[in-house]
Amino acid sequence: MKFQESLKKHYFDIVKLRRQLHQKPELSRQERETTQILEEFLTSKGIAVTRPLPTGLVATIKRGQGPVIAFRADIDALPVKEETNLPFASKNEGIMHACGHDGHAAVLALAMLCFLEDESWQGEVRGIFQPSEEMYGGAKPMIEKGVLDQVELILGLHIWPEIPQGIVGSCVGTIMASNDRFSVKIKGQSAHGATPHLGVDPIVSACNMVNSLQTLISREIAPWEGAVLTIGSIKAGTAYNIIPNEAVIEGTIRTLSPVIREKMEKSLKRLCSYSAKALGTEAIVEYIEQYPPTINHKEVIELVKANLPETLEYKTLDHPSMAAEDFAYYLEEVPGALFFLGSGTKEYHYPLHHSKFQFDEKILSFGAELFYNAGLNYLQKNVCQ
Ligand code: NI
User: What's the CA-to-centroid distance between 299 and ligand 1, angstroms?
Assistant: First the structure.
């Protein structure tokens, strides 16, 4: 069956599925009902599913001998109070699908149905409905459970309101940044505000450190590399006339390559240590690695571009996004790419994570056809003789 026929047959069900998911958004690692809804939908259509983790699932279609390809959709929602006034708005107070992951799941479900009804390919199509993208990272535990075993190609997409509807954006190489976080505890010695010479002031040391940290990007990273260091929190003190014992600063570091990521971590630790010592304080740095940069593979971008649906136009992104995605982990293991599916229109213009974020459900079929066309082409070309 061709894409248009499957689309016609299932479009109503897919929109219904998306609205059902939208109405029942769940936070990372709590996607129980979401998983249940998806499992019931897929199995009712004759697609086998497994549940390698407590939430999320993997749908599999096998046909004869051939390559294994995979698609990934994230399924979790955000702690946002929905303000869309949609008839199918969130029923879970304070939680909303404000990042379009309900759409991603619907796109993947539709693509799976298209593969199910097309008998012109051989091999295996795996649909990874992954939990916990917003927090904790569900990609890594999914990979550890073997969801990428034998996989030769993986595609993912994210709905993207900054790109106009009808356009899909991506690029060869880094499309999204790494997003490590850090905290620095600066230990001083408390004293009366009137007698600073009898203590060691961690606040002055922290302020000095915050300013010095900004030199890491401007003086140690090549101008064409691109990186971000933001201090988002600074905490110290209890009263206006007391020098406290300690101050704590917290921040995020975003980089576009593993080399720069490693350099930033080393430089941060060095600068914090010496900056603290210069003022007689001590810095205890905790560096927490989160998602690595998401780096697209050239041959996969070419494959998708060569098999683009008529409903979409491809645009190379002007620059990568400094936000992060745990899809990065899949791309460290197998060839693949992430795509930004444009959803911006006059009506649908709110950014991701906004309480009024919405998209036109028409784009569900655009995304599914992108997956289907590229995947089908790969399976047909790489069939085992
Ligand atoms: Ni998202």
Answer: 25
CA of 160 to the centre of ligand 1 (A): 9
Ligand 1 centre to CA of 328 (Å) is: 13
Please give the distance, rounded to the nearest whole angstrom, from the Cα atom of residue 30 to the centre of ligand 1.
16
Mean pLDDT across 309-315 = 97
Phi and psi, residue 261, nearest 5°: -60, -45
DSSP string, 245-260: SEEEEEEEEEESSHHH
The four Cα atoms 372, 112, 90, 156 give a dihedral, to 10 degrees, of: -50
Q: Which CATH number fits domain 3-175+293-381: 3.40.50.300, 3.40.630.10, 3.40.50.2300, 3.90.180.10?
A: 3.40.630.10
- DSSP E strands in 3-65: the ranges are 48-50, 57-63
Q: What is the pLDDT of residues 222-240, one digit of tens each?
A: 999 999 999 999 999 999 9
Ligand 1 mean position to 101 CA, how many Å? 6
* Radius of gyration for the chain, computed over Cα atoms and rounded to the nearest angstrom: 24
Is the separation of the CB atoms in 17 and 363 below 8 Å? no
Determine contact, residues 70/128, Cβ cutoff 8 Å.
yes
CA nearest neighbour of 39 among 105, 97, 115, 86: 105
Instruction: Find out whether 68 and 135 touch, Cβ atoms under 8 Å.
Output: no
- In this predicted model, what pLDDT tens digit does every residue of 188-207 receive, in sequence order? 999 999 999 999 999 999 99
Q: Residue ranges per domain, the chain?
A: 3-175+293-381, 179-291
312 alpha carbon to ligand 1 midpoint, in Å? 21
* CA of residue 99 to ligand 1 center, whole Å: 5
Average pLDDT, the chain: 97
Give kind and range of the element (H or E) at residue 7: helix 3-23
CATH fold for the domain made of 179-291: Alpha-Beta Plaits (3.30.70)
Question: Helix or strand or coil: residue 126?
Answer: strand
